[in-house]
């Protein structure tokens, strides 16, 4: 078992990024970019479902019996 004082334990940059450092700013922008990509993908999936719902409502005779 390794004992260390709290002052000698270093956190990774993800947990303890310095607000003024370039690494901290890059992490913030990476998170925003990831959220933008996820929002775009969810929008594409919702548009795909909406397209099929609209198509099914406009052509009810094409649905399976």
Strand coverage percent: under 5%
Q: What global shape is seen?
A: rod-shaped
Low-confidence stretches: none
Oligomer: single chain
Total domain modules: 1
In percent, how helical is the residue content? 55-70%
Q: Care to count the β-strands?
A: 0
Number of helices: 1
Structural classification: mainly alpha
What series of H and E elements makes up the topology?
H
What would your notes on this structure say?
The protein has one domain (12-62). 0% of the residues are buried. It has one helix spanning 22-58. It is rod-shaped and about 70 Å long. By secondary structure, the chain is an all-alpha fold. It contains 1 helix and no strands. Helix content is 57%, strand content 0%.
